[in-house]
Amino acid sequence: MPEPAEGPHAVTPDARQETLDETPPFVTEEREEPKTASIKNPQDTTQQHPGTRKPTNASKASELVPGALRNVGVYLPPELLAQVKDAVYQERTTYADLLIDAFEAVQNKQIAKEFATETISTKSGMPRRAPRKRGEAGIQIQLRLDGLQVAWLDEKVTEFDAPSRSALVSAVYKLYIQASLG
User: Fold this and answer.
1) Backbone φ and ψ of 15, nearest 5°
2) Which residues are within 8 A (CB) of 111 and not within 5 positions of it... i.e. 6 or more apart?
3) Quick one: which of 23, 24, 94, 168 has the most CB atoms within 10 Å?
4) Strand pairing partners for 139?
5) 171: buried, middle or exposed (CB in 10 Å: 19+, 13-18, 0-12)?
6) What is the pLDDT of residues 46-99, one digit of tens each?
7) Domains of the chain: which residue ranges?
């Protein structure tokens, strides 16, 4: 048997024996089996129907972060949408900024007049009920608004008794564009 080498890396017979006696840690420990998906009893699961959502306590991130923008969909009649797109392009702005400019330029009494119901008198004197003005069918656009802007817009819907956000936004855009054209 050859003599063991001497030096810092030399292996002594005692060291060889210690190495043989030790067993690698992975062999002595029990291996943890990978967990597989358990098969659930069909009676324990609830079916999810398309279009239904689970109620959650968590809010959208855009609602939790102050100043975060979110998309607010509104519908505009096709002719008005074309005019709004032209105005956005001409002024190099966004739908939201154009709406802010429109609210600043149009007077509140003009907006209120758009949603005022008028009664029609008859020969008998009993007023005829006037149909409430509704928003028109249209094409959806997305306004990028933060939470404060959405809350302000919703207050205006209530203030002017508008049937919807879309109806209010449509009326304000229409009044603004009419004023800028005329």
Assistant:
1) -65, -40
2) 156, 160, 168, 171, 172, 175
3) 168
4) 76
5) buried
6) 555 555 555 555 456 556 666 789 999 999 999 999 999 999 999 999 999 999
7) 67-181
